[in-house]
Amino acid sequence: MAEYAILYDASKCSACKGCQVQCKQWNMMPSSLGKDDNEFTGSYQSMPDLNGDTRLLIEFREEDNARGIEWAFSRRACFHCKEPACMDVCPVGAISQLPDGTVKLDSTKCVGCKYCTAACPFEIPKYRDAFNVSNKCTLCDDRTAQGREPACVQTCPAGAMAYGPRDEMIAAGKARIDELKAEGFDKAELYGETEMGGMHSLFVAKYGYETHGLVRDPKAKDITSLMAIMKPLTGIGIAAVVGGLGVSFLTAIGYEREDMPRGDKKEGKQ
Amino acid sequence: MAGLGPSFGRGAMTNHFSDLKNADVIWAMGSNNAENHPVTMAWVQEARAKGGKYVVVDPRFTRSAALADIYAPIRSGTDIAFFGGLIKYIIDNDLWQKEYVENYTNAAFLINPDFGFDAEAGVFSGWDDAANSYGTADTWKYQIESQVPWDTSEGAPYAWMTAPGVPEFTPKVNPIPKKDPTLSDPNCVWQLMKQHYARYTPELVSKVTGCPEDKLVEVWETFASTGAPEKSGTICYAMGQTQHTYGSQNVRAMALVQLLLGNVGIAGGGINALRGEANVQGSTDMGVLFHIVPGYMPVPVQSKHADLTAWLDAETPTAGYWTNRPKFMVSYLKELYGSYATVENDYAFDMLPKLNGANHSHIAVFEAIKEGIVKGVMCWGQNPAVGGPNSGFEREMLGELDWLVAVDLWETETASFWKAPGVDPSTIQTEVYMLPAACHYEKQGTISNSGRWIQWRYKALEPPGEALDDFEMMHELYLKLKDLYEGEGGANPEQITKLHWPYETDGHADITKVAQALNGYTIADGELVKNFTLLKADGSTACGCWIYSGYYNNNDAKDDPTQQPTGSRSKDDPGGLGLYPGWSFSWPVNRRIVYNRASADVNGRPWNPDRVLVEWDGTQWIRNDVPDFGFQVVGADGVATPIPPGKTAFIMNPEGVGRIFAVGTGMKDGPMPEHYEPFETPVQNLLNGRQNNPGLTFGSAESVKPSDPERHPIVCTTYRVTEHWQTGGMTRNIPWLAESMPAMFVEMSEELASEKGIANRDWVRVYNERGSIEMYAIVTPRFKPFDIDGKTVHQVGMPWHWGYGSGHATGAIANDITPNVGDANTSIPEYKAFLVNVEKA
Amino acid sequence: MDVTRRGFLQITGAAFMTSVMYEFAGQTAAMAAESGGAYKLVDTQETTTICCYCSGGCGTIVSTRNGELINIEGDPDHVINRGGLCSKGSSQFGVNSVYDDKTGERIINPNRVQKPMVRRAGKSEWEEISWDEAFDEIAGRIKKTRDENYEETADGVTVNRCEAIASFGAAALDNEEGYALQKLCRALGMTYIEHQARI
Description:
CATH topology of the largest domain in chain B: Dimethylsulfoxide Reductase, domain 2
CATH class of chain A: Alpha Beta
Oligomer: heterotrimer
Strand content of chain B: 15-25%
Order of helices and strands of chain A: EHEEHEEHEEHHEHEEHH
Distance between the termini of chain A: 46 Å
Shape of chain A: globular
Structural class of chain A: alpha+beta
Number of strands of chain A: 10
Strand order of the largest sheet of chain B: 27-29-28-33-26-32
Helix content of chain A: 25-40%
Low-confidence stretches of chain B: none
Shape of chain B: globular
Number of helices of chain A: 8
Radius of gyration of chain B: 26 Å
Largest sheet of chain B: 6 strands, mixed
Distance between the termini of chain B: 40 Å
CATH architecture of the largest domain in chain B: 3-Layer(aba) Sandwich
Largest sheet of chain A: 4 strands, mixed
Number of domains of chain A: 1
Strand content of chain A: 15-25%
């Protein structure tokens, strides 16, 4: 079976967040029913980062430089790596790779140990409190199995996302980079062709990786090698031990994405 | 919209959404289309993929600006200066489309020699300071060459007015204006325009707008390139143009530009009014406004419309398609009062309430409450407690009412005004009813998008709990009132009891019956009419809204919307221009691009052979769109004979051309747009001697409490964000959206923030004489101070989606500090430019 | 990948069962075994509507099963939005239903008003009333205000008007409702008839 991929083009994205909301709609993810308990980020960005109930987030970064104002929009969600660190560390086999390249997290098997989060170079999988599981993009494999586009791709009103055979998406992404360079966006580059063995969610970075908050040369977190030893272990007792270890690993790693607005409302400008 | 009607004849978007792909240049001015009409962006990108340019001019660097090929900043409220400079640029550089301007506009028409503009006084001829009005604007008129009386003889065009049953009125005499085809007469429109905009030099426009001169010229040059006959440019606008005290003139300024460049009536061209609400086009079409009844016909006024004859005499024009207005009015009256409406009783014309001549617009309602005139208010899905200008005043006035009915899905701030922060409910005597409504997919009916497409929405499921759809509520209320007046009598009971209200099937309210009434039918047999050309002034037809005629005309399936034009879903696209004539129904008569005669030259040859709307092939018209002109005559034998090309491209205007100069009283504040400063401004008007638009409304109302430029020197504007809608009544009650944009904020430049000691995410206060509100600050390089004639002018902006009401995201009401002053023609409030100050809270 | 798979919608337009899903029954069963649930839209009825937010007129498909809301997404066959919906459009589901943030269950949006209510003069709480009571009281109030403030003539001209009642709103209504509203208001003699186009 051919490998499939999403192509996200930040130069066409209008940051309307249609994908962010439609992802929650299709995948039946809630938002808080409380009053005023969503944090204000200090920008148009909805929340500081993905969370247990949010698999896709549109990020906002802005720079005022010699070229003028660069308001960079980024689609933050699982990249569906060809060499998925999350899958390697999952102790219960809840994460698998489908023939089309989709990295799927089966919540019925997940024990909520958070190793996947720790191992992921992007800290994409998030812990979903209410269900004690990790949560991340499934590339809408339920839809793609029916011959349909992922919900985020279909809903994009700006035509900034496409879904199709990965080689075609790479070709389209490269062609777009050439167009952008011709328009004067000399730092434009395509993300995901080779990163992590090649990704199934590609990203046309109009202003270059850094401006869009993309990690250059991402590597699986160190936890991976350690977990290679743990992985063969199975059983309820072991799962509990692993779960405990997971917490301490997370604490030790303490991975924080620096360019995200976070913290309480008293803090000054980021 | 009030600027489009006097220019082209119809107050609606000229083109439609999928047509944006045909443009060589798309200019968003006063519209943040990427954020507020996101669906436009796929079409913008299609145009760009073919080499088109996307230009954004806005005080703020918006999400639209982020995607633009060219972005230019402009101080809020200076659009006419920007457009005026462009008009001068087009003339000076000879970039106008000559054949188009000469034939399809009134450039060659001669104006009364006494017309003029006094730049020192800042007013046009005819201004009366004492009356505070231009009155009848006698000098804003054409010079007349000859008078042609209507031919009402048998077989002649106006024979219908002598038929039995047609109410009496006087046949018209059509004045034929004098013209100078060489455009050299000093009184011709072309010369007057040239002279008027001579003051709008790039240097001066830059000083007024704060837009750097090189940016101005870059935008002008790019857009003026569409003056080439085969090129098309479109301007997308929205409330950024209309919410000013000269909002209608902003729209007129765009009309001038587009007429000069030959961009009206062509694929990829036009002036596209991106309307702010899902069905605000439709609700305007339906005449749910104080001054018009359905189909854009004036509401009777006591001083000039004593009876139907007087109305027909005053409101029937001398030429153009609107000469059919008597047919549409009589058909409307027949729909309202059915068999009670007869030629003997003036078709029940007296049952229509007559205005006393005073302004009855939104702002006026609250002044009328203050004066004790208005005592009861019904709100059908509107939330003035958050959405109205100077909303603190509006909430205070709601407390003066005897009763208020709020129909909505949610408990809006209007329904709950008596429990607003700081209000003691025990002091408020208003009785408030909150009625739960059904949402759009819990009921059925049609909705009209900005592009005039009338689409059916089907019912998918029952509303929750006891909620009812609005129509059922109106139906029950009507029946109850009818019972009361039949039983008890009261003031003029017949006005209610004689009303024709047959919208029921098996004892239940039936919206398809209203659809049939809107489409129109012949009274004798109840058969739906094919379209409005079959409506009559003799009382034999009924039609609720003539422009909708044809949208629901299938007699074989009257109760089945899927079998009606409005429910049609064919994706056929003749010409490949995205016209989709088989998808739903577009008013008028399924025409997708109005004024499409202008897409071809005087001989009927399209300006651009790749964008054919209509084309004369020598013997007949090739039609990808429904022609907006007389293209054939159908004889009594049913045989159609083609009409060769004429020059009447604007059939709704009596003179048949687009108006660079708005003659008569079509515009209350000037026949050509002139720059004035907003009602509240920190700078002097540099273009003429008058600070504000002389025609602005409510400027002297006590409730307005103008800001003081010394104490409130910062220009403020309000706007919307993609994640929320209007007052937030819908969107703050949906958790996904509350999370998407959770809190109220004010955006400001780094320069202003540094002056005020404000950091990003600080809690700040924004205030003026009308109020003081608190919110988060967003400090961003996307806002920049303006250099206005050497003076630094700061601008801030806030969205107006928040309020105290129920939901998941509450916050300050931006409109608590916006001014309740209005545009000269529409009385739309000036939400887009007013003065405030800002401090750290 | 061919995603516009709904040619037959062009014919029917309104509501129909998603028979197309049966074609994928085998796949659906396999997936159900893997992920513990059937494809979301199996056995749903699809109804077309138009988004309630901006004036773009984006086509939208509402999927229901046994009268319950299952899903709302863009209509891939619609010629304007071609399946697209922005954040607001994508949230149309939330107008009727939301997912509980504790249990994940679908519930009716708790903010929806579901019964007619009245707030009596000077009181600080809503009271529930029946529809009959609501219509009786409102019609009575309209009649009283109208009768007490009605003008039949002014300056010798028949004017038949009542200036004491105002109506706001229509842009959130369907066209037919807007028409009925102005008809009802004008039959009451009302002159203060306004809606969102004015602001």
